[in-house]
Write a structure and sequence with these properties.
There is one protein chain. With 444 residues, the protein is an alpha+beta fold. The protein has one domain: Orthogonal Bundle (Cytochrome p450). 54% of the residues lie in helices and 12% in strands. It has 19 helices and 13 strands. Strands 1-2-3-9-6-4 form a six-stranded mixed beta sheet, sandwiched between helices. Strands 5-13-10 form a three-stranded antiparallel beta sheet. The chain has a two-stranded antiparallel sheet with strand order 7-8. A hairpin with a 3-residue loop joins strand 2 and strand 3. The model has no long low-confidence stretch (mean pLDDT 92). It binds protoporphyrin IX containing FE (HEM). The site of protoporphyrin IX containing FE has 23 residues, from helix 14 and helix 19.
Length: 444
Amino acid sequence: MPTYKYPNSISFFRFLFNSSEITKNPIPFQRKWFEEKGDSFSVWSPLRGHIILTRDAKISKQILQKKHKIYHKSKLQTKFLSKYVGYGLLTSSGDYWLQQRRLIQPGFHKEKIQNLVSITQASIDEEVGKIETGQFTDLYPIMNTLAFEVVAKSLFDFSASKDTMRRLQSIIEQLQRFIVKEIRQPHKKLKYWLSGEIRYHMKLVKESREIVLSIIEQRRRSHQRHDDLLDMLLNARYEDGTSMTNDQLIDEILILFVAGHETTANALTFTLSLLAQHQEVLAKAAAETAEISEKKFSNLETIANLNYIRSCIEESMRLYPPAWITDRVATEDDFLGDYHIKKGTLLGISIYELHRSKQYWQNPEVFDPGRFYGNKKIDTSYYLPFGAGPRLCIGNNFAMFEMILAINTILKKFEIQSDNKPIEFLPLITLKPVGIKLKFSSIS
Ligand code: HEM
């Protein structure tokens, strides 16, 4: 019998005792326990066996990069998520994931994405044009709609009515909220079933799939070339010459909506809020915007030259990583540094804590875009807003250029002001900003 060695442990009873608070907001607990037990700690659960949470860069690198083949996504990410949002790139694993990744990856190559810049800029202009001035406004809903519209228009050229679009956006939001409830309070499953909540949400799943199918069919009937991601998905062929079925297409499209809009909306909200709270940084970013806009660059050149704004976004995602945690399950016994873990161990990698660890960052709680400015290379074992290794976010380049264009457009048009309340957030599936308000005033 091999002897296993796990990181310092938290007793299961202590964990249970705090479970209702952990359910509401796990971030203060992980901080407290890392400080107490070290950069990795474990909990032994009678139902789940050993669970490890880590903010150790070497361990994160081994799991996500060096030995990724033996670390697979857990059922939380595959089974639970896919029940509601489909079995696509984000939620699949093993050979099926690899086959889909190979098929879809070319659609996200830099050259392909660059062709989408003008349509992305047009969607951003439309949404930014709707921002009301002169009063403190809830920022998140504006950024959420902006990010949703950008994915819909740039990647799929969806020409559904505004009502249908808002419906799809609202369904995705409702489903995500329910997934969090189910994952965090699994003991209430019977209650959700009896109260009809599960049935209600499965009806929403059906409706969202019907909306996406109607859009696919509309595109097929149009016989027009759009040269966007939807065309690419429809025309992609596996090695044996077959193409994706309608169900596979719906799964992948829904996943791209889910993975691609809320994360970006969160990052944009945090970035604008941080800028508004740091006047000297805001002044530099606004000066860069003004300088670049005088040069009459193309959209692509604009993105390439907005280096300070890029650094502000990178620093904002360090402090508030939209994907604040990820997990993997060991499919074999493994040695992780000093530890020896058993096949089946569940591991959580706290991206939030890696990004704020004193081991890797000076003054980690301070917002300082200078850390990134000048194309400084930062190690992906402790800075990983888009993940790392083969399961790196497929939309990372797209997200970066969308965010740079959005911040640039806003700073060109408005002065922004914060109410200077501390930035609040909730760690749900993504790290969601809460109650952030900004005042926009037009630059005359
Ligand atoms: C600021 C914006 C974004 C952030 C912070 C972000 C973050 C991440 C992270 C951390 C992962 C890896 C998860 C893991 O390894 O467990 C991931 C995967 C993924 N992201 Fe993003 N993402 C963003 C935007 C987007 C966009 C715009 C799209 C598409 C339109 C997208 C699509 C995906 C997909 C499909 C995956 C799964 C890739 C795979 O497993 O092969 N993401 N994202």
